[in-house]
Amino acid sequence: xxxxxxxxxxxxxxxxxxxxxxxxxxRIFSSHIMGWFxxxxxxxxxxxxxxxWGGGSRSYTxxxxxxxxxxxxxxxxxxxxxxxxxxxxxxxxxxxxxxxxTADWGYWGQGTQVTVSS
Length: 118
What we know:
Layout: E1 2-7, E2 10-13, E3 18-26, E4 33-39, E5 46-52, E6 58-60, E7 68-73, E8 78-83, E9 92-99, E10 107-108, E11 112-117
Parallel strand pairs: 2-11
Antiparallel strand pairs: 1-3, 3-8, 4-5, 4-9, 5-6, 7-8, 9-10, 9-11
């Protein structure tokens, strides 16, 4: 089992920055892939970015490339999402997730709200 707890959300003006954190605990392996998703009201959950826990390889959805950066601190068992140049359309609940390479996203945090005012 893997437990995930997000923090760092809040209200920010357009163009501003926020850093989200996802504290992971439980049975975390180097093969785990850690991801961030977001869900805006009335919209489907959307993949944002992911990083491999062991190797650090990253992927991003096109709408956040060059603005968002995912990273992880193995010693702290924490994954971060640095969000710069925030736009109103980034407003959503941001959720941390984890999976093994051959599995679906099976572990989820409770989410943290990010609101960007224009």
